[in-house]
UniProtKB/TrEMBL annotation, chain A:
It comes from Acidisoma cellulosilyticum. Pfam families: BPD_transp_2. Belongs to the binding-protein-dependent transport system permease family. LivHM subfamily. This is Branched-chain amino acid ABC transporter permease. The keyword Cell membrane applies. It is a multi-pass membrane protein. The chain crosses the membrane at residues 12-35, 42-64, 70-90, 102-123, 147-167, 194-215, 221-241, 248-267, 273-293. One of its GO terms (cellular component) is plasma membrane. It is found in: Cell membrane. Keywords: Amino-acid transport, Cell membrane, Membrane, Transmembrane, Transmembrane helix, Transport. GO terms for molecular function: transmembrane transporter activity. The keyword Transit peptide does not apply.
From TrEMBL, chain B:
Residues 34-379 form the Leucine-binding protein domain. Belongs to the leucine-binding protein family. Keywords: Signal. This is ABC transporter substrate-binding protein.
């Protein structure tokens, strides 16, 4: 029982990370029909922004050594700037292009960020120690609970609640939802298209920054492709949850995280190597039963 | 008429090819240098491994040229960047061969280096992987003229198993294998072969992938095994960046037992990921700071003098020892031609080099039984513990992982 609870918390913690990444990807897809594969690289940039840009083998913390009250906003600002810059430089000129064109463009952005990081920081992975206080453990009736996992889960809940309040209650949030529902109609009604899209990039930047810090505190390792596996699984989560649906992205994120962790925990040893194959089989089954995802978005269904 | 045009065309083609070849040939013949070609990753992800080994080879070339060269001829290096891409690798290999390379250096990994090495083999030239740990990087995978400067990954696992059992008294091991690349599977295969042979018990094993965002389930399982089955050592087979992430998660998860790994976790550049790391051991061919052999220390100093700082990991060193053996064989053969040189190199048994004794056989062009230095990575620095040489040769079935070693 203790073991199961332990695995469940492990699963929720991983699911939280995937849910946050999936939210960032789902948000942009909802408004722009952009499948942003560069989202993982926003996470990479958030992580690398903590250290001194140099090809030296040992990483020197700059922003990373600041107090967290200054560190978190600074990393958010940096990632927001990068996210909005990709919008202005790459996606804005492609506004009238089709969804596949946008997706290919996001691949290009991803490739450029990865190689840019490689050029500036060198090929060797780097290591940093961020917030080691968070890695202490609480022992609770035999349950081994790293504080970081609790912080990850709590941060995810706070960001999810914050985002949903923002979308439901604030003027800008309502404009974003309107744009996601029917972009052209929203424009006719006075919603500024570029502004709303820029806002969506900024929000996805904040989500990416949060993930980069939580992830780095957990792993301590920096590499130019560190965000890719997160984005890949989060993309799967978005599809499982229902493209364009934010609750769907969250549910999908948690589901993928839980399925992966539970498979790793309970598959027999010989089959564990094929864990991801089982995860994706599960995804295929979900999509066969519900082709539009678990919580389909109304505005997307007509297009599928 | 048409046929005649075709024949003339063909003749013109042959002639122009001849002219091209002739134009290419005298350039090398005139300056009489021995050309060696680096078809390695000068950029991209693999540069982390190739970069320092290439610099070490350049150091050897400079030193040899300063001493009058080889066979009385100067050694000249030509370069082609594989950009850490396998397709570019073949092109890079071809390019340095066209520039007259008598010896081709390939990327420090079997999968990435093989395309260039195969080009060299096809052209009848010697190739050497800067640091591939797979025995296929040689006779079986490329051909009879191909070598690896490294040791087989299995030797790393076997060395840690023997040393751990005999000197550290570890009896119950848990094996955590990173299945993302073959190197790690081979390292663990070596451990799985040697540890039970010594009398140790492998209590359980588990896997993960280098880019897994979390290894929490594995940590939970290992923690249980430590508690319930008296596991006293963890054999970890991984590399960077997933390696430092795994060690951080293991230590944060309360796993305090000693951790062993292959050479891939050598160096101190990554340990800021794991504050207060101790009881972490790797086997290496050369220790960057404080190697027990004075010849290695001298080499480190020469490298530091030329490039401003010492190498980061052991992967810079092996090519130096290999080049010493190659030069010795070239001198003995009086030529750089592959066939006679390889024939002499294959006879080397415990031949002395700056890094210690090295051996080749007609079937094995990689080191499978050399003394390795065990390094303790703790308190932000590396400390050599002792040298260890495994007692019996690793069986072929383990070296090529022909059957599941368990």
């Amino acid at each position: 029982m203790i073991n199961f609870l332990q695995n469940l918390i492990d699963a929720l913690s991983l699911g939280s990370l995937y849910a946050l990444v999936a939210l960032g990807i789902g948000l942009l897809f909802g408004i722009l029909r952009l499948v942003n594969f560069a989202h993982g690289d926003f996470i990479t940039i958030g992580a690398y922004s903590l250290i001194l840009p140099s090809a030296s083998v040992t990483a020197t913390m700059v922003i990373g050594s600041w107090h967290w009250e200054a560190l978190i906003p600074m990393v958010c600002v940096i990632v927001i700037i990068v996210a909005m810059a990709t919008d202005i430089l790459v996606f804005r000129p492609l506004r009238r292009s089709s969804a596949p064109t946008l997706m290919i463009a996001s691949f290009a952005v991803s490739y450029m960020i990865q190689n840019g990081v490689l050029m500036i920081y060198g090929a060797r992975p780097k290591a940093v120690n961020l917030w080691s206080a968070l890695t202490t453990q609480i022992n609770f009736y035999g349950l081994r609970e790293p504080v970081l996992q609790l912080v990850t889960i709590a941060t995810t809940i706070v960001l999810m609640v914050g985002l949903s309040l923002f979308l439901k209650r604030s003027r800008w949030g309502i404009q974003m939802r309107a744009a996601a529902e029917d972009f052209r109609m929203a424009q006719y009604l006075g919603v500024r298209g570029n502004f709303v899209i820029g806002l969506a990039f900024a929000v996805s930047g904040i989500l990416a920054a949060a993930v980069s810090l939580l992830f780095l505190a957990q792993t301590g390792a920096l590499s130019n492709v560190m965000g890719v596996p997160l984005a890949l699984f989060a993309f799967v989560a978005v599809v499982v949850g229902g493209m364009g649906s934010l609750p769907g992205a969250v549910v999908g994120g948690f589901l993928v995280g839980i399925v992966t962790t539970m498979l790793q925990a309970y598959l027999p040893p010989d089959l564990r190597v094929f864990r991801d194959a089982f995860t994706f089989t599960f995804v295929i089954i979900v999509l066969l039963v519900r082709p539009a995802g678990l919580i389909p978005s109304r505005s997307i269904v007509e297009r599928v | 008429m048409r046929i005649r045009t075709k024949i003339i065309g063909a003749l013109a083609g042959v002639a122009s090819a001849g002219v091209l070849a002739a134009a290419a040939m005298p350039a090398q013949a005139a300056d009489n240098d021995i050309v060696v070609g680096f078809a390695v990753a000068l950029s991209g992800g693999m540069n982390a491994y190739d970069g320092e080994a290439t610099k070490m080879a350049q150091l050897w070339i400079d030193q040899t040229n300063a001493k009058g060269g080889l066979l009385g001829r100067q050694i000249k290096a030509v370069y082609a960047d594989t950009k850490s891409d396998r397709v570019e690798g073949a092109r890079a290999g071809l390019k340095v061969l066209q520039e007259g390379a008598q010896l081709v250096f390939a990327t420090a990994d079997y999968d990435y280096g093989a395309p260039a090495a195969l080009q060299a083999q096809k052209a009848g030239k010697i190739s050497v992987f800067l640091g591939a740990s797979d025995p296929k990087a040689g006779v079986i995978g490329v051909g009879p003229y191909s070598f690896s400067a490294e040791k087989a990954a299995q030797l790393e696992g076997a060395t840690m198993a023997e040393w751990g059992y005999e000197k550290m008294g570890y009896h119950n091991a848990y094996v955590l294998d990173d299945t993302a690349i073959e190197y790690d599977k081979s390292t663990c295969a070596g451990f799985n072969w040697a540890f039970p042979k010594e009398g140790g018990t492998i209590v359980d094993s588990d896997t993960f992938k280098n880019d897994d965002p979390s290894i929490s389930s594995q940590v939970t399982r290992i923690a249980n095994a430590v508690r319930d089955h008296k596991v006293d050592v963890l054999m970890l087979c991984t590399y960077q960046p997933g390696g430092s992430s795994a060690v951080r998660q293991l230590r944060d998860g309360g796993i305090t037992i000693p951790i062993l790994n292959g050479s891939s976790m050598d160096g101190t550049y990554w340990i800021s990921a794991v504050p207060g790391l101790k009881d972490f051991y790797v086997p290496v061919q050369a220790v960057v700071s404080g190697d027990p052999m004075t010849s290695v220390q001298a080499l480190t100093n020469e490298y530091a003098a030329k490039y401003g700082k010492p190498p980061t990991t052991q992967y810079a060193y092996p090519i130096y020892a290999w080049l010493q053996l190659w030069a010795k064989a070239v001198t003995a053969a009086g030529t750089t031609d592959a066939k006679p040189v390889v024939a002499i190199m294959q006879k080397y048994t415990n031949e002395p080099t700056a890094l210690g004794p090295r051996s080749f056989t007609p079937k094995m062009h990689i080191q499978t039984n050399i003394p390795l230095t065990i390094v303790d990575i703790a308190d932000g620095k590396q400390t050599p513990v002792m040298q260890w040489r495994i007692k019996e040769p690793i069986p072929v079935a383990v070296l090529y992982r022909l059957k599941k070693a368990s």
